Amino acid sequence: MKIDIPEGKDAIAYVWGEMVPGIGPAASRFSLSVYTHTTLGLREFEAARLRVAQINGCAFCLDWRTERDGVKVEESFADAVTHWRTTGDFDERTRLAAEYAERYTLDPHNLDEEFWDRMTAHYSQLEIVELSMSIGSWLAFGRLNHVLGLDTVCQLPSGASPVPEPRVRPAR
């Protein structure tokens, strides 16, 4: 870990809550809100989240699986995300979510018109903004945790997914 944590303090609670009280709690609320308020389906949500985790190298994020009403993606899903271009396990929305996460994270200047034509054929503008904010959250906070060495001690307080139930996807 790159940050000194006082004896007896939880590393995540200390860094995200106490060290920078004007920023950390707000960042934490934003991070959790992408789970709590999502309208995206579980597979596309997890495809984007896991692709960012793979790129960031965040140990906690790589091991985490979002759960909704007791449902998680299958064990082989992370491997399918790695091979999002060729896997037969994804529909077009899920494949696009993984592709968008990768391009957003690694090469945001090359999101060309061909890509946006495919995105808008499968996602509403609301969903694109939501996915963009979610990817931004995972990119920023997964990297923060990894760079500071917090990703090996990170856990949500409840140990469960912060999403109480799946949300209804808005009409496109």
From TrEMBL:
InterPro entries: AhpD-like. Gene3D superfamilies: AhpD-like. The keyword Oxidoreductase applies. SUPFAM superfamilies: AhpD-like. Keywords: Oxidoreductase, Peroxidase. It comes from the Bacteria. GO terms for molecular function: peroxidase activity. This is AhpD family alkylhydroperoxidase. It comes from Nonomuraea fuscirosea.
